[in-house]
Write a structure and sequence with these properties.
Elements lengths: L1 H10 L4 H8 L3 H13 L6
Helix pairs in contact: 1-2, 1-3, 2-3
């Protein structure tokens, strides 16, 4: 859950691969979180 919050926080400032590198998760994990957020209407862009 902490990674989800941090991924969404950094989304506005960084690209997917930069977020992944900063948090030590895979780009596919970041993409999945972005997709889930979009599906829930939480997409800020």
């Amino acid at each position: 859950m902490q990674h989800v919050r941090e991924i969404l926080r950094q989304k506005l400032a960084l690209g997917r691969s930069q977020v992944a590198g900063a948090l030590g998760v895979s780009p596919s994990t970041v993409a999945g979180v972005f997709a889930d957020a979009r599906a829930l209407g939480l997409d800020a862009t």
